[in-house]
Amino acid sequence: MYTFDYKRLGEPNAAAALMNADADAKYLAGGQSLLPTMRLRLAQPSALVDVTRIASMKEIAFKGDTLTIGGAACHAQVAANADVKKALPGLADLAGRIGDRQVRERGTIGGSLANDDPAACYPSAVLALNATVITDRRRIAADDFFVGMYETALEPGELITAVEFPLVERAAYEKFRNPASHFALVGVFVAKGADGVRVAVTGAAPSVFRAKELEAALSTDFSVVSARSVTIPPDNLNDDMHASAIYRAHLIPVLAGRAIERANSF
Q1: pLDDT band at 136 (very low <50, low <70, confident <90, very high)
Q2: DSSP for 207-234?
Q3: pTM, entire model
Q4: Residue 253, number of CB atoms within 10 A of its CB
Q5: Can you name the CATH fold of 170-265?
Q6: DSSP letter string over 239-263?
Q7: Nearest-5° angle of CA 113, CA 86, CA 122?
Q8: What does each C-alpha distance from 61 to 65, 81, 262 come to in angstroms?
Q9: φ, ψ (nearest 5 deg) of residue 40
């Protein structure tokens, strides 16, 4: 690992100012992806700007029909929070099944979204729930946020300060996980709200995406049978040593059906 400076600040604007002054600096949230990359000498930031102690970025607030989660809230905090369990139990359930206990205590929602790992769980929730990513500069709709593999709409130095989730009638997540990494080989988040049904898939492609075939079927009949009747084309899905594209395509409607069952159990 190369040498670097470590800086810890107490408010988002100060952290952003440091980043804007040093193009080679990186934000440190949970560090679950960044630190291993640094240990392998694949990344050489000049400084790490730690945002995990910024109080406003760890807050979780439930007001009216919106749940707001600070960008530095760790997975364990989201999973255990009473407001999240009440407002969006499917989101609390997802957070409680990310990785293992150590990962859940360190990893953050903002770090997960900024990294945009193709197999991460949170992107599917943000996309399916039509959430809004709030940064130190602007508000970004979920449909505009995820661009490609490890690529988002964030600009250099832009900091995710919070994520705003609208409440929905029913929502849940189900995944078929890699037994070693606990990442999703395929993960499906299903949400039914006033504006219809949204289904987001992670792990199956280079980036999270909406499954329009499932959305159309479930908008007509929000049921397990309806989900499993859908055929997902394997085109553009990942095909690797862990699973073929055809197998991933088969898993998507199966997991969507399981997610509906889970949503009905909350």
Answers
A1: very high
A2: S-EE-HHHHHHHHH--SHHHHHT-----
A3: 0.94
A4: 23
A5: Enolase-like; domain 1 (3.30.390)
A6: -SSS--HHHHHHHHHHHHHHHHHHH
A7: 15
A8: 11, 10, 24
A9: -85, 0
Supply 50's token pair. Answer: 């730690």
Could you please state the CATH topology (level 3) that the domain comprising 5-166 is classified under: 3.30.465
Domain boundaries, given as residue ranges, for the chain: 5-166, 170-265
The number of angstroms, rounded, from the C-alpha of 266 to the middle of its chain's C-alpha atoms is 21
Structure tokens at 248: 């991933």
Tokens for 226, please give them: 């309806």
- Which residues of 64-126 form beta strands (DSSP E)? 66-70
Structure tokens at 201: 């898939």
Contact indicator for 114, 135 with CB cutoff of 8 Å: no
Q: Do domains 5-166 and 170-265 have the same CATH topology?
A: no
Coil, helix or strand for 135? strand
Per residue in 138-179, pLDDT tens?
Answer: 999 999 999 999 999 999 999 999 999 999 999 999 999 988
Q: What letter does residue 91 receive in the DSSP assignment?
A: H
Residue where the block lists tokens 């040093």? 22
